[in-house]
């Protein structure tokens, strides 16, 4: 297990990279952000200042001007002393393969190499590496500084020790680490999300419901339900005294019929469909900037996390 302050290199200074940097800094680690953009320092610090109130509400201290935060456009020197590398670069296989091949020859032999990829597996990324045993996916849900989930996805050649170290590293950051038993494109949460988005687009495109009302429907039902229990716990509780067995007895037939009716055919995101959805989002949410909406979202998610933590603490006290 990795203890104390670590040298963490974040590859990419976009929103995901800045969010990871905030979390690493708040837990006492030294962070070097590698990005070739000349204004990366300004952009990352601006984002850290924006999310500072959220971090404080979570009980974490963050100093956007900290000397523990540095920037380096040179990849070799950026990773030279890294204990952990968290990659947040473009979702392009060729880019990631070339990147890891360069990094492994420049960093410490024991450095843990982690990718934030939302769908490209570690086995695919590490194909050109000589030391693929230390590379794996650590996929966050956006924004990483706030959403607890991180999917730890070892590749076929990732060592069990590297997977354990990655899990321990994320847990020490307060993350809920889910270790996948095998690789699959899109991993777990994004595949579930893709299914929900697919049906959401289909319903709006068919004119069944407005875009804004669909958001309300999900937020006011599944969003609340799944915040306190995932699909299977919710099914277990939805079956009454019979639990999940009672749930299947009552609803299995209806679910099968609904699945057959939906057919789950691909919904093509044509340029026309995308334009229609973009216009709908503009009408529904164009009254505020993206930064303003992000701050609203962060505040609401913090409130949910705090409420859940208080409820769990109460259960333990009464337990």
Shape: globular
CATH domain fold name of the largest domain: Rossmann fold
How many helices? The count is 13
CATH homologous superfamily placement of the largest domain: NAD(P)-binding Rossmann-like Domain
In round numbers, the mean pLDDT is: 91
Runs with pLDDT <50, length 5+?
none
Short structural summary:
It contains 13 helices and eight strands.
How would you describe this structure to a colleague?
The structure is a single chain. By secondary structure, the chain is α/β, with parallel strands linked by helices. The chain has 2 domains: 7-179, Rossmann fold (3-Layer(aba) Sandwich), CATH 3.40.50; 189-287, Orthogonal Bundle (N-(1-d-carboxylethyl)-l-norvaline Dehydrogenase, domain 2), CATH 1.10.1040. The chain contains 13 helices and 8 strands. The chain has an 8-stranded mixed β-sheet. β4 (84-87), α4 and β5 form a beta-alpha-beta unit. α1 (15-26) packs across α2 and α2 packs parallel to α13 (290-318).
């Amino acid at each position: 297990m990795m203890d104390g302050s670590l040298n963490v290199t974040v590859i990419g200074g976009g929103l995901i990279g800045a969010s990871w940097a905030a979390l690493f800094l708040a837990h006492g680690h030294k962070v070097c952000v590698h990005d070739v953009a000349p204004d990366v320092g300004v952009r990352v610090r601006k984002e850290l200042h924006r999310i500072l109130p959220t971090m404080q509400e979570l009980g974490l201290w963050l100093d956007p001007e900290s000397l523990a935060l540095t920037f380096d456009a040179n990849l070799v020197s950026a990773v030279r002393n890294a204990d952990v590398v968290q990659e947040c670069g473009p979702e392009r296989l060729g880019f990631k393969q070339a990147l890891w091949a360069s990094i492994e020859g420049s960093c410490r032999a024991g450095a843990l190499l982690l990718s934030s990829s939302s769908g490209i597996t570690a086995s695919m990324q590490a194909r050109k590496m000589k030391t693929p045993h230390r590379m794996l996916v650590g996929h966050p849900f956006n924004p990483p500084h706030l959403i607890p989930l991180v999917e730890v996805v070892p590749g076929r050649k990732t060592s069990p020790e590297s997977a354990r170290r990655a899990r321990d590293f994320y847990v020490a950051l307060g993350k809920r680490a889910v270790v996948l038993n095998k690789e699959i494109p899109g991993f777990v949460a994004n595949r579930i999300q893709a299914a929900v988005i697919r049906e959401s687009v289909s319903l709006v495109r068919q004119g069944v419901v407005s875009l804004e009302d669909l958001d309300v429907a999900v937020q006011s039902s599944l969003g609340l339900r799944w915040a306190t229990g995932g699909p299977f716990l919710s099914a277990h509780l939805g079956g009454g005294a019979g639990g999940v067995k009672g749930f299947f007895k009552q609803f299995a037939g209806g679910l099968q019929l609904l699945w057959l009716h939906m057919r789950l055919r691909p919904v093509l995101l044509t340029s026309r469909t995308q334009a229609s959805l973009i216009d709908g989002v503009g009408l529904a949410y164009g009254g505020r900037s993206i930064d303003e909406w992000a701050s609203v979202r962060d505040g609401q998610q913090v409130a949910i996390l705090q409420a859940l933590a208080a409820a769990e603490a109460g259960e333990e006290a009464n337990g």
